[in-house]
Write a structure and sequence with these properties.
Length: 182
């Protein structure tokens, strides 16, 4: 269980890029990721994100990478991006050794709060690989719903990993954000 009082949240800057790449890679790919429950190592090999991709997200208007630190160490992050009155949520990573204690719920809640209060977004939207049924169920327990919309996996673009199967696609999940003034 994490202690929310010892967590600090802040927006990433370019100097944080190496730590972000390491966290995201360690959360989703390779043997180290298998110590947590969010691994994609059975679905994808290779990288999850690269330095250029992180810098692009950080530098984009209406986008931010939210960092979560504890005792000076990066332990979680996510991307939020305002797209009109919708906020895209992605690159969600919790260090494998910190998973299962409620930290993910705390990070997701902070991302939703930021989208709702700072950006006045009415809806949070994300994509999840449809084969990640346990992850989709986790989001459903937090109010997200399957939209029935799917997006293709970017086969052939190794910036997003090397697929280990040929049936991957993304499912779009959405959640209305309560309390947004009209």
């Amino acid at each position: 269980m994490h202690n929310a009082d010892t967590l600090s949240f802040r927006a990433a800057n370019a100097a944080d890029m190496p730590a972000i790449v390491a966290l995201v890679q360690g959360t989703y790919r390779g043997d180290a990721s298998r110590t947590g429950w969010t691994t994609e190592a059975d679905l994808l090999d290779g990288q999850r994100i690269d330095a250029e991709g992180v810098l692009q997200i950080i530098g984009k208007p209406d986008s931010r990478v939210l960092l979560v630190e504890q005792d000076g160490a990066l332990i979680a992050c996510c991307q939020i991006e305002r797209q009109g009155d919708v906020c895209y949520f992605g690159m969600f990573s919790v260090a494998p050794g910190k998973q299962g204690g409620g930290l993910g719920k705390t990070v997701l809640a902070e991302a939703e709060r930021t989208a709702r209060e700072q950006w006045r977004c009415r809806t949070m939207r994300m994509t999840v690989i449809e084969q990640r049924v346990e992850l989709i169920a986790w989001y459903e327990r937090r109010g997200y719903r399957r939209s029935g919309e799917y997006q293709p996996f970017p086969y052939g673009d190794e910036r997003f990993g090397i697929p280990l199967r040929d049936d991957l696609r993304f499912e779009v999940l959405v959640k209305p954000l309560a309390g947004v003034a009209a």
